[in-house]
């Protein structure tokens, strides 16, 4: 398994969506990060991670990400 680490700055407001589903409710947070080498990635967080992102992160915050 490969693990990726990224550092960058959030470049847009976090889009938070709440979906009511028959198997439960799903929250989704979507935002873009500009990395130190000027490339951009889209970050998607679900449920508890989406709630954390929406509550604590803002545009222009510097963040570090870990992904699989």
Question: What are the defining features of this structure?
Answer:
single chain, 68 residues, mainly beta, OB fold (Dihydrolipoamide Acetyltransferase, E2P), five-stranded antiparallel β-sheet, 5 strands, globular
Explain what the structure shows.
- The protein has one domain: OB fold (Dihydrolipoamide Acetyltransferase, E2P) (Beta Barrel).
- It has 68 residues and is mainly β.
- Strands 1, 2, 3, 4 and 5 form a 5-stranded antiparallel beta sheet that branches.
- The chain is built from 1 helix and 5 strands; from the N terminus they run ββββαβ.
Condensed summary:
The chain is 13% helix and 57% strand. The chain has one helix spanning 48-56, and strands at residues 4-10, 15-21, 24-35, 40-46, 62-67. It is globular.
Write the layout of secondary structure elements.
Blueprint: E1 4-10, E2 15-21, E3 24-35, E4 40-46, H1 48-56, E5 62-67
Antiparallel strand pairs: 1-3, 1-5, 2-3, 3-4
CATH architecture type:
Beta Barrel
Helix content: 10-25%
The 3D shape can be described as globular
Our estimate of the beta-strand percent is over 45%
Report the C-alpha radius of gyration, rounded: 13 Å
CATH topology: OB fold (Dihydrolipoamide Acetyltransferase, E2P)
- The succession of helices and strands, N to C, reads EEEEHE
- Classified by CATH, the class is Mainly Beta
Q: Give the count of structural domains.
A: 1
The average pLDDT value, as a whole number, equals 93
Q: Calculate the terminal CA-CA distance, rounded to whole Å.
A: 7 Å
Contiguous low-pLDDT stretches (5 residues minimum) are: none
- Spell out the CATH superfamily: Nucleic acid-binding proteins
Largest sheet: 5 strands, antiparallel
């Amino acid at each position: 398994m490969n693990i990726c680490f990224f550092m960058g700055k959030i470049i847009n407001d976090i889009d938070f969506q709440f979906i009511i589903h028959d198997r439960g409710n799903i929250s989704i947070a979507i935002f873009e990060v500009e990395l130190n080498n000027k490339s951009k990635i889209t970050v998607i967080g679900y449920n508890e991670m989406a709630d954390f992102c929406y509550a604590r992160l803002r545009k222009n915050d510097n963040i570090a990400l870990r992904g699989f």
